[in-house]
Amino acid sequence: MAPVTVLVIGAGGAVGSALIDVLIPDHRAGRLRLVAAARRSESIRALCERGIEVRTLDLDEAEAAGLGAIQQVFDGIDRLFLLTGYDVRMLAQSKAAVDAAMAADVSHLVHVGVSAAPDTTIVHFAWHQLIEAYIERSGLGYTHLHPASFMQNLRLGIEEPGVLTHFVGDARPSWVDVGDIAAVAAAVLSDPAPHDHRSYNLAAEAASLYEIADLFTEITGRPWRYESAEPEVFYERMTAAGADPIYMACVRNVFERTRNGSLTDPPITDDIHHVTGRPATSLRTFLQRASSLGLGSRRSSARAVRPAAAGCGPRTSGR
Ligand SMILES: NC(=O)c1ccc[n+]([C@@H]2O[C@H](COP(=O)([O-])OP(=O)(O)OC[C@H]3O[C@@H](n4cnc5c(N)ncnc54)[C@H](OP(=O)(O)O)[C@@H]3O)[C@@H](O)[C@H]2O)c1
Fold it and tell me: What InterPro entries does the annotation carry (predicted)?
């Protein structure tokens, strides 16, 4: 029997590339067939170099040219990982992906949303919930992943070694390692049945930025301090770097409301342990790893979107 085919959308992004890392051994062993969808030429090239089939996909093309512009990418796909970027267009992009998945008879879809109260009034959290409602009425099998703040975000707040800038005052947000999100997604995509129609809250622990700076001091043996900045600073920086202002205004609101105490993260669950069979990565472990990889040496910057080159592998599409 042919192995199931898994399509990873957003395969060049933070979560998607971590998911490719987890699934590639299964692909090489013939336990599943992995197909990556990517848009930017750098992502496509990097994925091609890993020896997997890459299909060029820009979900925005469906707006101008109809679903047919993206449909081929979903041909022959059994299971789908759906993630979109930090952009208000996530709504239309996700709907197009779900519609194409339905047309292609995909059997199970794993969607990355966000950890939030069901009655949240945070705008981009609501967008994720509306996308999930659309997935639920699609008839597809589904699993929703609801991650807390990514530990990897901490990199964005390091402009110089020893200073950790963030925007939530003295609040204690919940944190999750992107590798754990990928591990949960991989477990579900490999065997969806026990996870069908389920939602998982993915968070390892809650910690203030003061606690994280102290932990970093202990791990690196050098002094670190937390510098609390206004959410407006975050908004100005991100939009100046080219990020979507509508989405970034939503994030600014999250920071403002986290600071003033009108927004708290949902309680920590043991969902990561339950699905993967191993404990969630702690902040200590994450920072130890990040420290050995040189976290703090350079500030991350927003990436420019360049037109995609032709994909690789036997079947590619997109224009
Ligand atoms: N950061 C957090 O703390 C946090 C917490 C909870 C939930 N989330 C959710 O996590 C998601 C972002 O995850 P991430 O950090 O992995 O994002 P990311 O690194 O920015 O990656 C986004 C991916 O989406 C792809 N993409 C963007 N526009 C596309 C389009 N028009 N067509 C096809 N693909 C497109 C990109 O492809 P290319 O690389 O080819 O451009 C990229 O691979 C968001 O939904 C966010 O709400 C984030």
Answer: Ergot_Alk_Oxidoreductase, NAD(P)-bd_dom_sf, NmrA-like
205 CB near ligand 1 (under 6 Å): no
Q: What is the mean pLDDT of residues 22-43?
A: 97
**Atom 40 of ligand 1: nearest residue by CA position:** 39
CATH numeric code, 5-150+176-203+267-280: 3.40.50.720
What value does the mean pLDDT take over residues 165-180? Answer: 98
The pTM (predicted TM-score) of the whole model is: 0.94
Cα 12 to averaged position of ligand 1 atoms, centre (Å): 9
The predicted pLDDT at position 156 comes to 87
Which pLDDT band holds residue 296 (cuts at 50, 70, 90)? low
CA of 43 to the centre of ligand 1 (A): 12
Residue with CA nearest ligand 1 atom 24: 10
Mutate to test the pocket of ligand 1, among 7, 8, 15 (most ligand atoms within 8 A of CB): 15
Q: Where are the domains of the chain?
A: 5-150+176-203+267-280
Query: How many whole angstroms from 10 Cα to the centroid of ligand 1?
Result: 6
At 149, is the pLDDT very low, low, confident or very high (cuts 50, 70, 90)? Answer: very high
Query: Taking Cα atoms as reference points, which of 169, 165, 189, 185 lies closest to residue 177?
Result: 185
